[in-house]
Structures are given as C-alpha cells and as structure tokens.
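Hey, I was hoping to borrow your eyes for a little while. No rush at all, and the record is pasted right below.
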Amino acid sequence: MAEEGPHKMELVEVKAEDILGERKAFYDRFMTGTTWSIGATVVVLVLMWIFLV
C-alpha cells in the first residue's frame, strides 16, 4: 500500500457554460435566503418596538 505512487488526477477544462447554471441557482437561493432573513429581522424589530417600548 505504501509503495503505490501518488494518485493521478485528470484535469478537465472548465467552461463558463458548464458552471453557469449551478452558479445562477446558488445566487438565486442566496438572494431568497437574504430576503427572508431581512424580512424576519424587520418583523422581530417591529414586534419588539410594539411590545417592549
């Protein structure tokens, strides 16, 4: 086992078209999560303003 050489990796050229869909889906999920987080923060702050002040 120790005598085996390093593992060979075959490098493949990555084109923008190959990863564009994945990046767009990530961006869409990120923006959706950000929007919901901001909305939830606003709701919590308004509720705190109503009930604590």
